[in-house]
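**User:** Hello, beginner here. Are you able to go through the protein record under this note? It all follows right here:
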Amino acid sequence: MTNRRLTGKSALILGVAPGNVGEAIARRYIEEGARVTIAGRRADALTEVAEAIGADWQACDITVDGDPERLVADTAARQGGLDIGVNATGWGLLKPFLAMTREDLDAMNAVQFTGPFRFFQALVAAMPAGGSIIQISSVTATIMFDDHAAYMGTKAGIDHVVRCIAHEFGHQGIRANSIAPGGVVDAPMSGGGLMLDSVASLYRREVPLGRSTRCADVANAALWLASAEASFITGQTIHVSGGQTLRRNPSIGEVYAAYGAAG
């Protein structure tokens, strides 16, 4: 029998909902022997996923003071410590730069910078003997997309925080890395548009490997980063995009035109 790569490991994944990247990672970790707690804002969604894959669950809103800290403390107590922590939360707001309000910026910052920062602080404190911290980022933290500045800026900012964690807590045995997918064809955030061939074809031409990212691609990278195979990897952003960062994103005008052609 093949040894499972995460046997005996304790993992926490925040930002899980049916069909998204977080669920795919949780499923992969459980297949490889980890005990997993999944978390997110919606108890009904968490219950559905937890029953399907055999995970524990706990509701947590990353924007609420005290919620990430309580989630980490409760999970560590329940599972006898934590070896792996993954942040898969995000808000894919598209809005022109000059139309962004203070309220928009505050909300984006809460979801994609302040909340993850607090979550990572709690994870570092809960891993005195080391562990693997993983942030789910985006290719748009590197390559441009129109009307997406707040999303892209906060993703890029928290990627740099991840590098700071790797730098400051390597002596503690903590490894911290980001995974930057391209548009994920089978996930709710970006998959809706990519299900239209007229839109998907715009992205395929910008991907050297000729297809969009899938949830399973991200889950495989997250498994590797959590496993002993990546025990000397830290402070990195791993692009899981088929090479899209070698090229570009389509322009917003091209995307809207493709939607119009599909209609």
Q: What stands out?
A: The chain has one domain: 10-185+213-243.
